[in-house]
Design goal:
The protein is an all-alpha fold. It has two domains: about 20-60, Homeodomain-like (Arc Repressor Mutant, subunit A, Orthogonal Bundle); about 65-200, Tetracycline Repressor, domain 2 (Orthogonal Bundle). The protein is built from nine helices and no strands. The chain has helices at about 10-15, 20-35, 45-50, 65-90, 95-110, 110-120, 125-150, 155-170, 180-200. The termini are far apart.
Length: about 200
């Protein structure tokens, strides 16, 4: 009989849960870019936020532009993967629409700095990164367009696309004007967004 597998030690589990240095840098950079804008933040500022020297950052990223590129492509990939995953798991069009709204609301509420950077800094990306981000964003929108048209009777493709962008604007504005606590805001945004989408029937 093979020996029983040993359980991971508590310390090992804690180590696995810790963000990597690279992840720490991206998180700090996102907060700073959201507060000051991409051009208002220097390498030394980001280094200070994670407790290392500015030049030491170059062991992890070749430039501030590369940092932004990884940050924004990562956001777009997470959203696209999340949208596609919900589309494949949903049992009905109505369920999918609700899941997509909840997913976007949770992402916006839990990642306000990333939402802000995504909205404000896309033009600062290198051309290759910008094309990649734009492509993934378009694919994410198409997941929503299909869900809206399947769940809401009589909606044209153009109207569904306009509705998706309008709901993104509603949800993604949350980092700028949160007045309720997180759960209250999530509930409110879910109700408003779903109500707006259902009202698109022509």
């Amino acid at each position: 009989m093979p020996p029983a597998a040993q359980s991971p030690q508590p310390g090992a589990l804690r180590d696995q849960e810790k963000p990597t240095r690279r992840e720490q840098i991206l998180t700090a950079a996102a907060e700073l870019f959201a507060q000051r804008g991409f051009h208002g933040v220097g390498i030394d500022d980001i280094g200070a936020a994670v407790g290392i020297s500015g030049p030491a950052l170059y062991r992890h990223f070749r430039s501030k532009d590369a940092m932004l590129g990884e940050m924004l492509t990562g956001i777009s990939e997470r959203l696209l993967d999340g949208g596609r995953g919900r589309a494949s798991a949903a049992n009905s069009p109505e369920e999918l629409l609700g899941e997509l709204v909840r997913f976007q609301v949770d992402f916006a509420l839990d990642n306000p700095a990333l939402i802000t950077v995504q909205e404000r800094s896309l033009d600062n990306l290198a051309d290759a990164d910008r094309k990649q981000v734009r492509s993934m964003q378009r694919q994410y929108v198409e997941v929503w367009v299909g869900a809206i048209r399947d769940a809401v009777s009589g909606v044209s493709e153009s109207t569904a696309r306009s509705a998706a962008h309008a709901v993104f604007g509603l949800i993604n504005s949350t980092p700028h004007n949160r007045f309720d606590d997180r759960d209250q805001m999530a509930s409110l945004l879910n109700r408003i967004a779903l109500g707006a989408l259902r009202a698109t029937a022509e």
